[in-house]
Amino acid sequence: MVWMSLDSSLETRNHQPTLDKEIFGYKTQSCRKALCIAGYILSCGALLLLFYWKPEWDVWANCIRCSLEEADVVLLRTTDEYQIYSRKTVTWISVSALIKSRSDYPTTAEEDSLFSKAITKPSLQVRSIQVQKIRYVWNICAKQFQKVGALEDHHTCSAIHAKFGSGLTCDEQNVRRVICGPNTIDVPVIPIWKLLVKEVLNPFYVFQLFSVCLWFAEEYMEYAIAIIIMSLLSIFLTVYDLRQQSIKLHRLVESHNNMMVTVCRNKEGFQELESHHLVPGDVLVLKEGKTLLPCDAILISGQCVVNESMLTGESIPVTKTHLPQADNCKPWRMHCAEDYKKHVLFCGTEVIQTKADDRGAVKAVVLRTGFNTAKGDLVRSILYPKPMNFKLYRDALRFLMCLIAFAAIGMIYAVCVFVLNGEETGEVVKKALDVITIAVPPALPAALTTGIIYTQRRLKKKGIFCISPQRINMCGQLNLICFDKTGTLTEDGLDLWGLLPSERNCFQDVHSFPADHSLPWGPVFRAMAVCHSLIVWEGKIQGDPLDVKMFEATNWVIDDSSGHQIDGHGSTHAMVVRPGPKASSAPVEGVTILHQFPFSSALQRMSVIAQEIGGEQQVFTKGAPETVAMLCRAETVPSNFESKLRLYTAQGFRVIGLACKSLQSGKQSTDLTREEIESDLTFLGLLIMENRLKRETKPVLEELSAARIRSVMVTGDNIQTAVTVAKNAGMISPMNRVILVEANEIPGSFSAYVTWKPLEEEKTGDYRTLENDSQTERKIRPALESGQYHFATSGKSYQIIAQHFRHLLPKLLLNGTVFARMSPGQKSSLVEEFQKLDYFVGMCGDGANDCGALKVAHAGISLSEQEASVASPFTSRTPSIACVPELIREGRAALVTSFCMFKYMALYSTIQYLGVLLLYWQLNSFGNYQFLFQDLAITTVIGVTMSFTGAYPKLVPYRPPSQLVSPPLLLSVVLNILFSLSMQIFGFVVVQEQPWYSKTDIHSLGHGGLRDVTLEQMDNGYKSYENTTVWLLSTINCIIVALVFSKGKPFRQPVYTNYVFILVLIGQLGICLFLLFADIDDLYSKMDLVCTPTMWRISMVMMLAVTFAVSFIVEEAVIENRALWLLMKKTFWYQSKSHYKRLQRALEQDPAWPPLNETFFSDSVAISVEGNMGGHSNPTFDSNEDAL
């Protein structure tokens, strides 16, 4: 087998778990192709249609297997459980016109690039394939297809500055342009005819077309026309919806496809060109004023402020700094670690401010173009959504296969009966094919779709918008919800509570806010005034809410006018902060912010270099207190630092550490690295922010807990604060113990260690140590043995455990409740790890740092005021977690509705099928109007109205079944088929035993006595006592089954609350009883019914009543009896096969678990989990692999 791993970027950047693709090479053979064309003609296009549905069969029939090097067609297969095939043609791109005149090509910049390795000599052509809008070219040296349209990852920081800093030459740019293709995210509006053809060629509509042709042949016109109208309506609605989506997506991207940009050409200076001509390696010059970015680019000089709300949903301006000129061998992305995004400008985002430095213009090297960019990935994630791994959809196909198998048996029976009775061949074929259209319900997909549409409408009324309707059913299975903390569980804004200044390594008195007296002038005040990344945008101070609150407390203002003269810096665009009208007197005119090192979630801090006007330069740093304290000189950190920090974090406060130092006058700040700047600092104190729980948080978490749905907190905040919030919110009950899991790598070695210790609460202001304590252990052990414990860990520890202690990770996740200091990539990784344990994971966040996790989860819910966020399948307009139980309720109701619909459709088609097969025994069948009444007046109407039932308001502590093949569901269907079969056979046999029965003489045995009617006058071959009996019994049986299967509690509201459905059933039953007891010759003639004695009609009603009673009792007492099924599970030792359940059972038997006051050491080399940890923070942001 010729196969390689297809770059995970194809999929991971689409927010899917690493989904490799196998690739197989094939060569087209002329003789095979000729045979296939003959097959298309002889089969009247049926073979072509089959190949359209199964592209791999098309390739296997037309081509022979060969190496990838010789292939002109490749077949890709996903390596997940779906094994989806796709066919791609290898195309040739010629670059001869561009290179012929240049014998010295490739130039230095190109020697080690993919562009020179892909060009075949002497033809000067490049082999390529396109997969999901991304172009791959054949690397002759590596013998594999590799992605183009992105700058190679192997470049170091200094190489990017050296090779690309002065721009590409015209020739290099032209070659790259031809190979990479245009820098456009082109989503053409799909023509209506294309959408129509694609929709009509759906296997379901092809089956309907076959059914309609057959019905026309049998003159069953009315239902055929009704199905045509319904199908056309369904097709047009789908096409209209797809067309609208296509137009919306086209409008979303077209603005960036063609704009004028300035690029720097090597040896030729600046040049204006259209953005679709940009290639990776070009140098983009960013001018002042607002600019939309047409590509992803690495900032190599100057500084930018960018609005990334298009990608993250968060409109807080983000500061970008230039890539350092680090002289080492590490690739630039590895050198910058998680902070590499601080140097990358992403496509689709808006540059709102640029600041040049002493190197001149603000420049950026083009990193990715077209669909490789951040915005391109976002668009691709919409165009190629993640396939749904849900048992319901797989079971639905199995269910239809069973019905087809069932129909095949009926066909054989029909052929035998009609052939043995000497019927014409044409008639035999028609009757046999008829069985398929009866056994497979053509209205099933439409009925299932209506259920989802109604649920979507109900969710919309509650302010929850859905862009992925197929995920609604999955919400019914959720059993673990990950919550972000800030803005999700707690209020979005932080209030400044107090400041704890430190002087001469001692904490001073707390300064409370709002205070009567203003904060005195000093280093702490200066830190609050300058250590932030705020900007003035559209006349308002914009930035992180924490920074805004801190700065507002100083009563200073930002003077953002450019061109301030700074000693030793020339005229540079710098920000100055000055005392405002309400500010207390300060001995300075203002402070200039010279340079910023933006906040980094990896480093957990930010720093600025500032200078008092006419004074010296100083560094100010703020960040996580533990991190800041480590950067300070030990003698400046108070001895009771840890106890004070614990005191405030234990009360749920958000605590920020502040520090500063003076810069030596001789040194230029631009020459210093971040490491040099952020060292030997003086500790200034702690800023204490209050973050209140939202009013809805506690009741919602209690409701989820009562429903046995696990809640987990995933936050970027301090671990102690997170644990306190978890306790206050009710995630961790007061009786339960918290075990802190800390992992660290051993310096200078490849191993690591992990410690497990109880996290003690702050009972008073005194600090209690975490150290081993046998007394503590004796108190805690009983709680641990009863399973009442929770693990709390940080992002750093989580990553080390994932790398060094892979076997411990599932055990940690099983009881892990608080995951603090988590980076966006770690959040996504955590969700995926939970999914590996067979949890159905929901993620609820504010859509900013949680984009990746929201996409990866089974159900991502973004709390955003936007109507629909591209970041997640669900968006709640009300920014509270009350939407989570609401979504689960509706999901459960939708899932149960789907099951009810499957059961009903299976029963309706089986009832009709059994009735027809019984009548076939006498070479009879139902009449056209009889079929029409059952199909249209009964089933279609029931199918549309059954889904109206709303969700039950209470969440019960168990979930509906997730699969169609569950024993209760199968038993319910089988038993009801048997009841129906028994009743129909009983009616069929007993009617023949009646004294008035006759096969040939059919009289109208009405209320007025005996009226002789000649058969020829009104008979069309269907009238018989058996037909009338079986048809009336089967029709009313369809209504009985609909009522019995319409489940109410515990997942849906009682059936009587669905007034439309109940009125429909009453109306249908009334009409059926009228048909049963009426004695109207014209009506009976039209419906192919015959009159029977009143007593026989009453007997039929009694048969139906008995069937209804038995069916209802069995459904309620057996099928819906949860206690009975639990008892049977217990009796037969049935245990859940879910990974997490198996692990739970194993750990219950393990006396050594959980470990307490223990340390484990790793004995193996770390497993690289970079692929899992990296870049799910946005649709965009990471992938290192490029090979196909």
From TrEMBL:
Reactions the enzyme catalyzes: ATP + H2O = ADP + phosphate + H(+)
GO cellular component: endoplasmic reticulum membrane; late endosome membrane
Broad class of enzyme this protein falls into: translocase
The keyword Transmembrane is assigned to this record: yes
EC nos: 7.2.2.-
Subcellular location: Membrane
Cited SUPFAM superfamilies: Calcium ATPase, transduction domain A (SSF81653), Calcium ATPase, transmembrane domain M (SSF81665), HAD-like (SSF56784), Metal cation-transporting ATPase, ATP-binding domain N (SSF81660)
Domain of life of the organism encoding this protein: Eukaryota
Alphabetized CDD domains for the sequence: P-type_ATPase_cation (cd07542)
Membrane topology reported for the UniProt record: Multi-pass membrane protein
Membrane spanning residue stretches: 34-53, 223-242, 396-420, 432-454, 905-923, 929-948, 969-991, 1028-1046, 1058-1078, 1098-1119
Family, per entry: Belongs to the cation transport ATPase (P-type) (TC 3.A.3) family. Type V subfamily.
NCBIfam families to which the protein is assigned, alphabetical: ATPase_P-type (TIGR01494), P-ATPase-V (TIGR01657)
Record protein name field: Cation-transporting ATPase
UniProt source species: Patagioenas fasciata monilis
